[in-house]
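Archive maintenance. Older records in this collection stored only the sequence; we are now back-filling the structure field for every entry so that each record is complete. The fields below show one back-filled record exactly as it appears after the update. Entries are processed alphabetically, and EamA family transporter is next in the queue.

ARCHIVE ENTRY
Title: EamA family transporter
Organism field: Fusibacter paucivorans
Length field: 284
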Amino acid sequence: MSLDRRNAVLFLIMTSFLWSFGGLFIKIIPWSPFVIAGIRSWISAIVFFVYMRGKVKRLNKKLIIGALIYTATLVCYVTATKLTTSANAILLQYTAPIWAAVFGYLFFKERITKLDIFSLTFVGIGIILFFMSSIDGGMMIGNVIALLSGVAFAGIPMSLKRMPAGSDLSMVFYGNLLTGFFAVPGLMHTTVTLPSIGGILFLGIFQLGISYILYTKAVKHVSAIDAVLIPIIEPLFNPLWVFMATSERPGILAVYGGVIVLATIVFRSLYLIRQSASKAHRFV
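Back-filled structure field:
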């Protein structure tokens, strides 16, 4: 289906809105993080398989690596959400663009710019504030795992960029299948109720399945600025839904840290977009 920009923006808003409910349902479903991550992903894999009409690419080295990175991201994020505040979990995951710059330098010999150093410095300050806030709250391990989620998340777009054409959905499909196996050891000790079934179905079908399909369709038809700014809906609304349902609130230092991290990521992205547009205009 061909999209115009207006509908693509609408799809992207819907995507971010659906993503933002992740923290809420992960918090209220009384299962272990591995069981939640695994069952959610198996449900999502079914959604992807139906959407792809069973046309999944055959496994290869790049798909396996991408699936492993995707799995690490999901498992770390769900675990972190259980062990720290939802705000900390999602905002620390949003440090991913900074880790992507570091990985680009370490593994692909991409140049580290003054902008990268500036961004790393301020994101580092934000991360320090998160961890200072967690000392009294006993959420240190959760914050560490949330940070690892951001590191893993940085590898997803890097994997997708190096994937053969048409393999992006297959990578996510295999990643969801792999993540599902994390649920197996805890299934025998999981109490199933109607609310938990409803919650996990929402997570698998809408929050992870349909949302990613909408994202892959929309992102090709929106401007670079739209692709940067609209997903910010997720870290803004994610803690809000959790607060409304559970009264959980992040510490004041974590709030300051989150503002610094988000502001730095947005500034860096918009600067790069403007720089790219300027170069393109120069060569016209």
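Update note: The chain has a mean pLDDT of 90. The chain has 13 helices and no strands.
Entry marked complete.
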